[in-house]
Every structure is written in C-alpha cells, then in structure tokens.
Amino acid sequence: MNNKLAHDAALAPVLVVGAGIMGAGIAQVAAQAGHPVSLYDVRPGAAQDALSKLQASLAVQVTKGKMSTDAVAALLARITPVADLHDTAHSALVVEAIVENMDAKRALWQQLEAIVGADCVLASNTSSISITAMAQGLRNPERLVGMHFFNPVPLMKLVEVVSGLHTAPQVADSVFALAQNWGKVAVHARSTPGFIVNRIARPYYAEALALLQEQCTTPVVLDACLKAIGFRMGPCELMDLIGHDTNFAVTQSVYQANFYDKRYVPSLLQRELVDGGLLGRKSGRGMYDYAEGAAKPQLAAAQTADFPAHSGVHLHGSGARMDAWGQLLAASGVVFVHDRGSDWTGLSTPTLQLRQTDGRTASSLGADVAVFDRAFAREGSRVLAWAPSVRASAACAAEAQSWLSALGYQPQQVADQSALVVARTVAMLINEAADAVQQGVCTMDGANQAMKLGVNYPAGPFDWLAAWSAQGVIAVLQALDAQYGGERYRVSPWMRQQACRQLGAPEIHA
Ligand code: NAD
Fold first, then answer.
1. Is 316 one of the annotated active-site residues of the chain?
2. In whole angstroms, how far apart are CA 258 and each of 65, 247, 277, 426?
3. Average pLDDT, whole number, for the chain?
C-alpha cells in the first residue's frame, strides 16, 4: 500500500480523534515532534478544553525551566481543535483514542474512510480490541494498525505497534519509525488478547490474588517481597492504584478472548472487592484502607540476631547469593564447609535444612526443613519470604528465622506453599512471555522492552530467565502444577525447548 507516512513522515499532518486522557497526550507528543495536529472529539468543546489543560500543564514546565516560552507557544500553535471531521481530509495519519468500544471504533473508521485519502494510515490506541476484527468492513483494511500508547503518554516511552491479519507490514513499519521519531521505544506486536504488556503482566496480579485467597500471607508482605526485587509497586498497591474494576475488566477480557483458558482465570477475591465497591484508592479502600488515620499494616520488623552457635554448618550450591553468605559467615567467625556441588542451594546444620525454593514445599522435603524465596540481582530491600515445614518444631522454625536475620534479611513468614512469592510470580511472568514469543506475539527483546517501559518492571522476563535457568523455572511451574493441578501452571513449549537447548539433552517433561 502506498502510505503517506512512508514518504514524508516528519511533518505529516496528524489527526487525533478523542480528546480524553490518551488523545490529549498523543496530540502533545505529535506536536512536540513538529507535526501539525488536528484534535477532534465528539463532545463539543472537549478538544478546546484539552488544549487549555495542556496549556496550563506546559506553563508549569516553563516555570520549572524545562521548556522555553517560545517552545511552548510553538507546540500549542501546532494543535488545532476541529469541530468537523471533513476539515481533516489532508491527514497522513489518524490516531484514534475514543471510547473502548468496537462498534464505536468501526463506525468512526468507516466515517473517516469517506473523508481521508486512501494513503492515510489509520492507527488505533485500543488497549484490548482485536485490530484484525476492527479492520473488518474497511475498504482498505491493510492500512489499519494498532498504536498502543501508555498512560501518561508524554512520560511513558513504550508504543506497541500492533499488526492484525490485514495490516500491511509496510504500514506497521512506518508507524514504528514514526513512534521512534516521537521519542518513543516502539515494539512490534501481533494482535492477540492483551497484546504484549497487558498479557504478560497478568500473573503479577493473579499470583498475588491466589496467594491472598489461600490466606498464605497479607498484601503488605506480598508488596514488600516484590519490591525487594526492584518492582516500584507491589501487586496489591498497584491494583489499588489502577482500580480493581479496571483490572478485573482487563483480566476478564483476556480470559474470555482466550476461550476461557484456565491460565487466565479471574480471581473470586477481586470480584468480591469490585462487587463491594472496594475499588482501591479511588473509592478510599481496596486491599488497603486509605481513610485518614487508618492503621497502616506493618511488616515483621528486622531483628538483629547473632549467628546461631553451631558446629556442622554447610553451605550448599553456588552463585552470588551463596558467595555472599559464605563471606558473611567467614567474617563472623562461623566455621562451615561449602558444598558447591550440592543439588540444592542454602544452608544446613545438624538440626535444619534452610533451602532456597526450587518450587517444592518445605513440608514435602522433610520435618527439619524451611524454604526461602529466590532473589534477583537488583535487590530493593532485604525483605525475604520464608516458610517452615508444617511438621517443623518450634525450635527448628526459630533456628531458620535466626539464620535469615543473622544473614541480614528481614524475614517474613508465609504459609508453606509451592515457590513462595517471588519465585512463583517471576516463573509465571517468564512462562507467559515465553508463550507470547512462541506464538509470534513479540520477540524476546520486544517482551523485555515492553515490560520495562510499559509497566516499569525492574527487568524484562528474559532478563530474569538469563539470571535463573529454564530448568529452574520449569521445576517451579511443575511443583505448582503438582500442588494445584489444572491448566494454570502448564509449561510453555518454548520453555521446554529452551531447557533442551541449555542442557543439550532431551526436553524435560514431568
Ligand atoms: P477518555 O474517556 O479519557 O477519552 C475518550 C474521549 O473520546 C472522550 O473525550 C470522548 O468524548 C471521546 N469520544 C467517544 N466517542 C467518540 C467518537 N465516536 N468520536 C470522537 N470522540 C469520541 O478515554 P481514554 O482513557 O483516553 O481512552 C481512550 C482509548 O485509549 C481507549 O480505547 C482506551 O482503551 C485506550 N487506552 C487507554 C489507556 C488509559 O490508561 N486510559 C491506556 C492505553 C490505551
């Protein structure tokens, strides 16, 4: 298809339809990049209102010295509110950011096809509607592409460029290049439910909700454990911020769009929060209570503890964590033997095995066993989930707690279930990303970029995989599957192939 962006993208006239939170932001970045922008909204006065709000927010940038008065004036002069779509026939690109409704979006495209030229590219900012389905009924469906920005648009770097079955590769490439010219990081995605970010992120919420539903721990512990590996917000506080109604709606739409695949099954707990109007920050209460004066839930405090006096201390396994533990023990005068070839990671004494989780519960491993969570390179704090075997004596559990405290952690005891908090969540994020790559939704690099830039993850799923191992992730998923059964924890075929490549051995099957 001959498209106007392919030839003269830099100053191409852009029409933004929908002057709400996203449309206003998209108009701003397009104008900032030098494009003449028309802004249209079905609600009379909405486009002008959006421009006035933008004017006020840019004035703040001038006060802060981040933009000059001239630059602001030039930017604003490039945006023209329009009251009639017929005045936008010259557009080279239309970016649609109207209500998230298929019929409304299809009707808009059909209306616009009669106005703009055949070489004008049509881009939708939809967060959940299929681009393939949206294109049905268009005269030139090959020019429709997804251009999925993230909120707030001027700040968030990611743009998912979403191709449906009809989308011409050259159209997707033009929009990709354009997004880069607008200072964004563009990532190609296939039009599948949730695209990249909203799909791969599902387990971040789902595993937290499952752990809460089973009463394994509390929101404050879950949040602290995940912030300890660098997440800016834990899943519970993040769901409270997004709103449980919005989050539940996205989960339901991904679940339905995947023909009710049990992997994406929504949570009863979240439905109860929504049904009860406990939507999060916006309603004053969700997982947490935001009322003034409400008690703030606290973590178990860090204890200073001396290393328990013991002979017969062994360190097991290799890697950065065990090296650090070895240095700490040596510096404190604890005599130990380091068995680097051990088939598990952690520490043992004659009365305790303190094992880094490999997915199995402490209770399945013995009476004198406690398990602790995985860590990843970027530790935000020393909070660490751990669990003793349900058969452990009080003395054995206390010994485990003392070792973890003496090693500098702020241990948080949770119920003994497979893979604790971090290992379980990260394994599921990696597995979801692996399935997305297997299905051609995105590349490994695309998934990493999308999660880091779209939702501020501290690392991409394949960065975590590189710091772990495919066999390790599979072991965790298989332990979860053994514990819960069903489809939720099934291993991505891509993960099995990856393990096979890494081991140089046949695929791992349970
Ligand atoms: P919004 O409600 O803030 O704005 C939508 C605007 O579109 C409103 O001003 C409304 O008057 C206007 N509108 C509705 N129907 C119209 C029509 N037929 N023609 C012209 N204007 C019309 O919504 P939003 O949050 O900006 O979302 C817009 C789109 O962006 C949706 O598809 C949404 O899924 C997607 N999106 C939203 C976010 C987000 O965080 N809000 C993030 C990514 C993508």
1. no
2. 48, 17, 27, 22
3. 95
